[in-house]
Amino acid sequence: MYDMCHFQMNAGARDSCSKCKESVNRIGETPQQVFSRDHKQLAREGEEWMKQTAQSYTVVGALIITIMFAAGFTIPGGNNQDTGFPIFLRKRLFMVFILSDAISLFSACTSVLMFLGILTSRYAEEDFLKSLPTKLIIGICTLLISITAMMVAFCAAISIMLQGRWWVIILLVLFASIPVIVFLLLQSRLLIEMLHSTYGSGIFNRKRFVIRKMTILIREKIASVGRKFARKNDEEQNE
Known about the structure:
Elements: H1 2-10, H2 18-22, H3 31-38, H4 40-71, H5 92-119, H6 131-161, H7 166-238
Helix pairs in contact: 1-3, 4-5, 4-6, 5-6, 6-7
């Protein structure tokens, strides 16, 4: 009984059996207490990995914030001395530069806030279930968006200054895509594993529940139709 309850606690079925939470072993420990005692080292390793990862990403995000904030005021071409407006204000590439610069800045700020949330977390056992993985997933995704927007802003600024020299622009765009691709390749496996471990089982369980429910409803419908036909046959035979 106790072993089964302990297995259910580890498998995430804590809400399925209220008696399992209250059952104790020979030394008076509940399944939750046994799980906490046996996984103390794993919790410490997870906390250390989370902190190191968040610190590394925070440094990258802070650098992007500094660069893109400065780029917003040092616009390509400068400003018109008479009006104070940017010289290339009416060019489409200039609007691409401004929008991508703003997107990169805001995404980097969001990413840094998510990683700060990880660093300031209390690292309780329940935090490792969804809170910390969700913050890490959001932080990595927003950092990827920030890096992509930064490369777009750089390419737009270069295109404004090198008007007509398309071979140089195309070459720079190809080189600018390398950091985005490398970051995506390096972090894609981590993102997939985090998404699957955090939300995958819940999604699959919901799908199974829906399929099971539909199967039960179909069986009940078939049974009710069968009972109606049986009643009709009985009535015809009686007549």
